[in-house]
Design a protein that fits this description.
Chain A has 173 residues and is α+β, with helices and mostly antiparallel strands. In chain A, 28% of the residues lie in helices and 17% in strands. Chain A has one domain: Alpha-Beta Plaits. A two-stranded antiparallel ribbon of chain A has the order 1-8. Chain A has a two-stranded antiparallel ribbon with strand order 2-3. Chain C is 26% helix and 17% strand. Classes of the chains: A alpha+beta (173), B alpha+beta (622), C alpha+beta (174).
């Protein structure tokens, strides 16, 4: 499996959350948005921000784990969580510049996108619907990826100004 | 019969006499020089000849060429090439920009226009299927780029509708124009197109200004010129686009993500007039431009699917309404990091301001950064500016760019470009030129593109600029004497975009060139004969120089002094451009091209390349 | 059975690459001829690119207007078909069209209108291929909305300008 990345184009996100449904059906066996590895934030209606691991080139989450529960898939470059080893301390979430990892609502283990082993379900349903907010590209590691590991509210603030002009500055506080 | 891809006629406009003629060039000249950059250098020589060294580029006699090439419009990514004797380098530059003007003029039946003389009032040239005519531009003189474009678009469309009201709606014309910087003959001013596209290098905006020529507008209704092998051309057209469509990163990001990565990764981005080349400012990342400002992310020019362009618009605050493209990497650097600015919004504002004033977004800001470093070094004072300039302060650079365009205060000196400004300020302040030239980041009068050579991690290296016949031009750098021949010299002469060239197999591009023109053209021949012919002609013109400026072989075939200062920060801290490598490669470069050890083409080389007409003048340089 | 067909247009997605013009003219004229393309992209201001083509109004005012019955509608897809032999270049169809879409061909001066390429429009193919989707095929029958797309491209651009640039948009198209 070659290095892949999920391109995210926020303006195209319809907010349908099919990505969350497809992800959780794949990983959890049923629809469970809060256990999806991709989560769509909506600080204001119309400003929907898909939030998922960006696979930073320096993997601060992996570095920060005190028990070495996190590792990098040599093929896809995804972060893999060893749920047996994870102690649910939240160090990875704090280390992530975009606070992407979260503790699973059931077992309180760190939960991070594993790129579905190379064929991400979220991308498939987004493409199928013609939104293309998520697209798969076969591109190598780049310093730009990390810039997408960003608090979704900060992203939404930028988008709001683009969509709504001056009003956008008031909508997200 | 005219070779394929050409309309077959060029306009020759004498602005002093209000005379417009149609001229043709023979097959041999076209096969030898193609069009654009190559043909412009040849036509320039034919018009000026051995008097070249005495010609002031801003004199009415100095010709200005606005040329397409045989591949323009047909090969993806259509562009126009502006050329002539450069008021900054005294050589020639094939300065290109993407614009529908390029295909429109071919559709009107012309491959380009050569201007000489000077109009006695502001004018623009209107080219249509019925020929060309000079139109009054008094009402446009003094307007910024955006207003010029809006007014011209409306009035030309109205005029054409008036002439032929019955044919249906008239589609918008294409145009190139100048802003206030060009009108006021700022030496490194750009010829602008499409609000934010510039023929930036070479200073041809000043040439247009010196001729009272505000714009050139074209609207044609004919087909693109017939080609030699139409069926092959159609297949190649489809194939080339398939390849361009596959370039996902370029299509998604353009070069608008590089303002961060060229600093953070390759450490070759100008910072505060190249005092540093490394930063890790994530606030300046591509997504921070994209999410807030990119209002159109799939933007392309005629016949292009690379869509590297993204329209930025500021929607709130004091710069509300500023519109520009991306900004692309060069302007993220030169209207951003080079001013010590890492704020996307300020960068968009200053880029849009450069566009509207008609500054080249690389060259003008290079001079502005140079001026602020002179202030930092206590050479220029607050009183020279009329205020206290500060790095990182958008208002400082907003004011300096306006002062340059309007030639106010120190702006009048800076309007001469970085190299000449250095000499003038040295004289003003009673200093030796070298005390200022060490801060002037240019090669042969042309300010350097935003790709440093010190880290050696970017695509530009030791002699990329030092040996380049277009000085600091980053789009057309020298490599080893042959490699560069197949790159920009070709795209600037066939006239299409670099970004629809790189990534497409060269064999396919040359097959396409052959299908269009029918010339016996291939990669090997281009690299060994046609490319070297054009570069050798350009080198001769560059070294023949002008009445008040002559470059010294070897001494001036070098990088700016700053590139030999160690990088002060970042992963490549301590590194400089390797002087020994520069000397060695320069020798090899000259030898490969058949130039003597001082870089002057030998008699044999001139003869071999059918450039014998240069021998009389060039012999004086040896 | 022939499926109904319409070219949906999203000018905000148009890149301005004009490959639609090139593909259309290669199909109809044999070579690249943007001014003889049945679809023409207007650009009253850079960034505001508006593909302009027949929208097959339900009541076909152009067909009605033709004094010599040179215009007819294709029974399968509803495209307007021009009989170039009969056309007298009078321009009545152009004036009758609410969007001034037809135009006189730069070569033979005859009225020129999109014929939907007999069901497989070339313009849509290249636009889809490039991922722009400013033009898409929809298998939808006639509707009252179609006529609303038959509009002067400068008016469309004026709306787009405000959508894209906010207040500034009101200034960029005079």
């Amino acid at each position: 499996m070659s290095s892949i990345w999920i391109v995210r184009d926020y303006e195209n996100c319809s907010g349908c959350r099919r990505c969350e449904l497809a992800c959780s059906m794949h990983h959890e066996g049923w629809m469970w948005p809060e256990a999806s590895r991709i989560r769509v934030f909506m600080p204001f209606p119309g400003v929907e921000v898909p939030h998922l691991c960006a696979q930073c080139d320096d993997y601060p989450c992996v570095e920060s784990c005190p028990v070495e529960a996190l590792s990098v898939d040599g093929g896809t470059t995804a972060v893999i969580v060893d749920e047996e080893t994870c102690i649910g301390c939240g160090a990875c979430a704090k280390a992530c510049p975009g606070t992407v990892p979260y503790l699973h609502p059931r077992d309180r283990k760190a939960t991070i996108c594993d790129l579905c082993g190379g064929d991400p379900e979220c991308v498939k349903v987004c493409r199928e619907a013609g939104y293309n907010a998520l697209r798969l590209v076969h591109e190598g590691m780049s310093g730009h990826r990390k810039l997408f590991a960003r608090n979704p509210v900060d992203v939404a603030k930028d988008l709001a100004v683009k969509f709504f002009g001056e009003k956008g500055e008031e909508l997200i506080v | 019969m005219t070779p394929g891809g050409y309309a077959g006629k060029w306009l020759d406009v004498d602005l002093s006499k209000d005379k417009i003629r149609e001229v043709e060039y023979g097959d041999k000249v076209l096969e030898q020089y193609l069009g654009g950059r190559g043909l412009a250098a040849k036509v320039l020589w034919d018009k000026v000849g051995d008097k070249y060294p005495e010609l002031d580029p801003l004199d009415p006699k100095s010709p200005l060429m606005v040329y397409t090439g045989p591949m323009t419009g047909i090969y993806p990514g259509s562009r126009i090439c502006v050329s002539g004797k450069s008021p900054v380098s005294m050589g020639t530059v094939g300065s290109t920009a993407a614009t529908e003007f390029a295909n429109e003029i071919k559709e009107a039946g012309y491959d380009g226009v050569t201007f000489t003389g000077k109009a006695d009032r502001p004018v623009y040239l209107l080219v249509t299927d019925d020929g060309a005519e000079l139109m009054d531009a008094g009402h446009l003189w003094g307007l910024d780029g955006e207003k010029t474009l809006i007014k011209l678009n409306k009035e030309v469309t109205a005029e054409l509708t008036k002439r032929k009201p019955n044919v249906g709606l008239w589609k918008d014309p294409g145009m190139v124009y100048i802003g206030p910087a060009g009108e006021n003959m700022v030496r490194n001013a750009a010829v602008m197109a499409k609000i934010c596209h510039a023929c930036g290098y070479g200073g041809y905006g000043a040439l247009m200004g010196s001729k009272n020529l505000k714009a050139v507008v074209a609207k044609g209704r004919g087909p693109l010129p017939k080609v030699d092998a139409p069926e092959a051309a159609k297949l190649l057209w489809r194939r080339t686009h398939q390849i361009l469509i596959g370039r996902t990163a370029m299509r998604r990001q353009g070069t608008g993500y590089a303002g961060y990565s060229v600093g953070a990764v390759t450490s070759s981005e100008p910072i505060r007039n190249w005092q540093e080349e490394w930063h890790d400012e994530k606030s300046y990342g591509g997504p921070m431009f994209e999410h807030r400002y990119w209002v159109k992310k799939k933007w392309a020019d005629f016949n292009c699917t690379t869509n590297c362009m993204k329209i930025s618009c500021i929607k709130t605050g004091k710069w509300k309404g500023d519109i520009t493209d991306m900004p692309d990497y060069e302007l993220q650097a030169y209207c951003g990091t080079n001013f010590g600015i890492y704020d996307p919004e300020a960068n968009i504002h200053l880029s849009a301001l450069a566009d509207q004033l008609g500054h080249s977004g690389i060259n003008g800001p290079n001079t502005a950064g140079f001026a602020v470093e002179l202030h930092q070094r206590d050479i220029l004072k607050d009183s020279d500016f009329g205020f206290k300039p500060k790095w990182g302060d958008p208002d400082t650079f907003d004011r300096i760019m306006r002062m340059m365009a309007n030639r106010e205060k120190i702006g009048d000196v800076l309007a001469e470009g970085t190299y000449r400004a250095a000499l003038k300020i040295a004289e003003m302040k009673g200093l030796k030129p070298d005390e200022l030239l060490k801060y002037a980041v240019h090669v042969k009068g042309i300010e350097i593109g935003a790709h440093g050579t010190r880290s050696d991690a970017d695509y530009t290296h030791d002699i990329s600029y030092a040996a380049n016949v277009q000085g600091g031009d980053h789009t057309s750098t020298s490599v080893d004497g042959y490699n560069d021949m197949s790159g920009a010299v070709f795209t600037d002469s066939a006239v299409f975009c670099n970004f629809t060239y790189y990534g497409v197999p060269q064999s396919l591009v040359f097959d396409f060139a052959k299908a269009i023109t029918g010339f016996d053209i291939n990669l090997h021949k281009w690299r060994s004969e046609t490319g070297p012919r054009i570069v050798t002609l350009q080198r001769a013109l560059l070294m023949l120089g002008g009445p008040d400026l002559k470059w010294t072989p070897v001494k001036d075939d070098d990088n700016p002094p700053r590139f030999y200062e160690p990088l002060p920060s970042g992963p490549y801290k301590g590194k400089t451009t390797d002087r020994k490598l520069v000397d060695e490669k320069l020798k090899a470069y000259n030898e490969t091209l058949g130039w003597d050890e001082r870089g002057i083409p030998t008699k044999e080389t001139l003869k071999k390349l059918d450039l014998g007409f240069l021998e009389k003048s060039v012999s004086k340089l040896r | 059975m022939v499926k109904p067909l319409w070219i949906a247009r999203d000018p905000s997605a148009c890149s301005g690459c004009r490959r639609c013009e090139l593909a259309c003219s290669m199909h109809h004229e044999g070579w690249m001829w943007p001014e003889a393309s049945r679809i023409r992209v207007f650009m009253p201001f850079p960034g505001l690119e508006v593909p302009h083509l027949c929208s097959q109004c339900q009541d076909y005012p152009c067909v009605e207007a033709c004094p010599v019955e040179a215009l007819s509608t294709d029974p399968d897809y509803g495209a307007v078909i021009v009989d170039r032999e009969k056309c007298t270049s009078c321009g009545a169809c152009i004036r009758a069209c609410p969007g001034t879409v037809p135009y006189l061909h730069p070569g033979d001066d005859k009225a020129t209108i999109c014929d939907l390429c007999g069901g497989e429009p070339e313009c849509v193919e290249v636009c889809t291929e490039a991922g722009y989707n400013a033009l898409t095929i929809v298998n939808e029958g006639p509707s009252v909305h179609r006529k609303l797309y038959s509009r002067n491209p400068v008016d469309t651009a004026r709306d787009l300008a405000v959508n894209m640039f906010g207040e500034k948009g009101e200034e960029v198209i005079e």
